[in-house]
Amino acid sequence: MATWDSIVIGGGIEGSSTAWQLARNGHKTLLLEQFPLPHTRGSSHGASRIIRHGYAEPFYVEMMMDAYKLWREIERESGIALYRKVGILTLECHPYEGIKVMESNLAKFGVYYKRLGPRDLKKQFPMLTYPNQYHATLEDDGGILRADQALKTIQSLFSSAGGTIEDGEKVVNITPGHLISVHTKQDTYKTKNLVVAAGPWTNKLLEPLNLKLPLQPLAINVLYWKEKEQGEYSPGRMPCFIHSSRDRLQEFYGLPCEEYPGLMKVDLHTGRAADPDARDANNQDQWDVKLVAEFLQKHLPGLEDKPSVMERCMYTVTPDHNFILDRHPKYENIVIGAGFSGTGFKLGPVVGKVLAELVMQKAPSHNLYPFKIDRFSKSKL
Ligand SMILES: Cc1cc2nc3c(=O)[nH]c(=O)nc-3n(C[C@H](O)[C@H](O)[C@H](O)COP(=O)(O)OP(=O)(O)OC[C@H]3O[C@@H](n4cnc5c(N)ncnc54)[C@H](O)[C@@H]3O)c2cc1C
To answer: Residue ranges of the FAD dependent oxidoreductase domain (predicted)?
Structure first.
């Protein structure tokens, strides 16, 4: 039986990026995915994701500086365009605490942005109706990542770097040790290192290894709304946006009509607790659809009041909404990437880089302190 340098469980954006980084660094790497690829059951499917530098936490802005470079590198290496620059607006009500922090982080890293008061906002984006107590920050470099294409591209870079993908292979058990045994329904593999990047299924794999992380999988309705007047919300006129609020039930985001012509993707930034193996059960009441419709009526009245298309996806959130990028507390050679809390796609290449560095015992390129598992231990809560 062959021994792998590394096995990565999970063919989503985080696992695939990690596998690619390992393979390009000379690790003999196997990527195991439970479903035949591509699939729509986890968190990384769909044609689009927002990319931006702006975050309330400076460590994410720093990582995003690296992420933009890595996405460009992926585009260069593959010859495939994955990023479309359309700008991103972050909107917030007085006293603008969130956008003030974000702006100071952007300034610290030299990222260009512009503050728009109510008059500028109306002039530049007449398709938005916001009362005077709202301000917006416009980051020019914000844009759209072609998500499905990006995932496929990274997986093919992984294969070109000598990596092996086995899809339709569900890992059912892990026996830790100096040489780890990874048991799938079909086979057993031996590896020196293991990366668990299993998205909403993470705890199902870790609990038998005596580790239960505070992860909550959420089922997310992905909604697409038709514009009443053709072209009003098209890229070039309409940027991506985030309507920021302290109340998670009032946080919305949107991408201009790009993915499906004439349909704008606008969603609530949360969902309902769900088992990833039964994601679509109990989804009748659609309270989130109502909240988005009410939001649109107030602020994007040029969109119809019922979604034309509804798809489904999953978030896996942590209590502080920060990622988990760390080793298993007991098993040094098991590395975990989880809890991407609905914002992890754009950072996928950086997550892959730092998880691979953990595996390869290299100094991480970024400060991983905010992502440590022990931040959840009782004494620190
Ligand atoms: C609607 C929606 C909108 C989003 N918008 C944005 C955005 O605009 N910008 C942004 O940056 N991020 C966004 N995100 C978040 C981002 O997409 C996720 O953070 C990211 O995709 C998480 O990837 P992952 O690899 O951790 O998880 P996943 O994609 O779920 O991958 C995990 C993989 O592990 C596999 N797996 C699990 N268990 C096993 C097993 N036992 N054996 C083998 N394989 C296994 C699963 O099948 C799955 O393929 C959004 C997410 C959603 C749902």
So the answer is: 6-358
